Design the sequence.
């Protein structure tokens, strides 16, 4: 099988590690805007490319030699990479589109089907594994009332400053853009960092205070879960230090992209300034050890009984050499979806992760890597 990994950062590195360790028959390439980063990943086991994502012709010419691409670049590139896949005939997976980009990708379903392309939108840790956990929890329910999805973490760091667990740009967008939740049968925009809820995750992660965060799970789950579902919510556990830093900046308008202010003769948005500032003055995870916990809770009806079904997963740092379990889980999931796409096991069209692979099969694939989903079922008369 031939798989191309686009992006040689932490997430792309984890995808490559899983491909190497789980498939002896894989031929893979790695593309990045910095050729030396791609070369470091492939060493003697693959081919490296310098890639400019905005160059549609060049990217398409590379992808036509592969059966699937795992897009591990910034989510704003998703549509451009999908267009290259449609042009080249390469199947596609990404790691999430923060709702709005995912919705735009779903609109390409007819074109993907016409061209015989399979495109999974959000096939990483969250979205991705979380979507599959929801599908597992919903099995056996005749109707569904509500779906709640939580992602939490426990972190230790040798740094005394602010630590970003992944890309500064993505973290800031997740924590500051207005989340879209599915409430009472409609999509509703809610304030960033609102909807506080204390959640008990599996140990050693334990309790997190989780807040609404813009994510792709609510973009696909209302249609895929069905069964009359009226509420689908996503909440993210955020460190107190991150909340105390970002909340006042949001209130001050420092996350604005529309406003421009003069800085040394150039007009920049407050958000552009903050991203540059944090990139230069904070850690992006090298000093961070991060445990990750995922939880889905579904309430519905089975037969004539009301039921609450939950699925839990916890992952420790250290696997594949990654101190950040977010990178590990995202890479594993991206690799699994990429392998299924390369083997043409995913139906044509733009497909939500919870519909791309049978949830039980996906759970078994995780189990082969020592990642276990536990399911709890409680019913009431």
Sequence:
């Amino acid at each position: 099988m031939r798989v191309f990994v686009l992006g040689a950062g932490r997430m792309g590195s984890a995808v490559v590690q899983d491909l190497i360790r789980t498939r002896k028959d894989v031929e893979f390439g790695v593309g990045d805007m910095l050729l030396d980063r791609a070369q470091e990943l492939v060493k003697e086991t693959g081919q490296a490319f310098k890639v400019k994502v905005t160059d549609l012709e060049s990217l398409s010419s590379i992808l036509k030699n592969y059966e699937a691409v795992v897009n591990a670049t910034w989510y704003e590139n998703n549509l451009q990479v999908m267009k290259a896949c449609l042009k080249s005939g390469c199947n596609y997976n990404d790691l999430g589109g923060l709702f709005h980009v995912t919705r735009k990708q779903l609109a390409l379903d007819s074109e993907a089907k016409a061209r015989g392309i399979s495109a999974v939108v959000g096939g990483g840790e969250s979205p991705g594994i979380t979507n599959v956990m929801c599908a597992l929890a919903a099995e056996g329910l005749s109707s569904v009332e509500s779906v709640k999805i939580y992602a939490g973490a426990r972190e230790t760091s040798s740094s005394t400053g602010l630590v970003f667990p992944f890309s500064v740009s993505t973290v800031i967008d997740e924590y500051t853009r207005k989340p879209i939740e599915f409430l009472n049968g409609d999509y509703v925009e809610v304030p960033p960092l609102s909807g506080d809820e204390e959640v008990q995750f599996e140990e050693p992660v334990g309790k997190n205070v989780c807040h609404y965060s813009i994510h792709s799970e609510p973009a696909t789950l209302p249609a895929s879960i069905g069964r009359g579902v009226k509420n689908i919510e996503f909440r993210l556990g955020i460190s107190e230090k991150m909340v105390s830093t970002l909340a006042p900046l949001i209130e001050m308008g420092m996350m604005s992209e529309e406003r421009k202010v003069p800085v040394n003769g150039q007009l920049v948005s407050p958000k552009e300034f903050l991203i540059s500032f944090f990139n230069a003055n904070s850690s992006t995870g090298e000093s961070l050890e991060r445990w990750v916990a995922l939880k889905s809770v579904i309430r519905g009806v089975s037969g004539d009984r009301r039921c609450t079904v939950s699925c839990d997963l916890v992952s420790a740092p250290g696997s594949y050499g990654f101190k950040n379990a977010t990178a590990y889980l995202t890479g594993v999931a991206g690799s699994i979806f990429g392998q299924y796409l390369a083997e043409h096991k995913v139906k044509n069209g733009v497909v939500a992760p919870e519909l791309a692979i049978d949830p039980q099969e996906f759970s078994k694939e995780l189990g082969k890597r020592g990642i276990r989903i536990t399911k709890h079922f409680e019913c009431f008369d």
User: Anything to note?
Assistant: DSSP finds 14 helices and 18 strands in the chain. Residues 129-322+366-380 form a domain with the Dihydrodipicolinate Reductase; domain 2 fold (CATH 3.30.360.10). The chain has a mean pLDDT of 93. The CA atoms of residues 309 and 377 lie 5 Å apart.
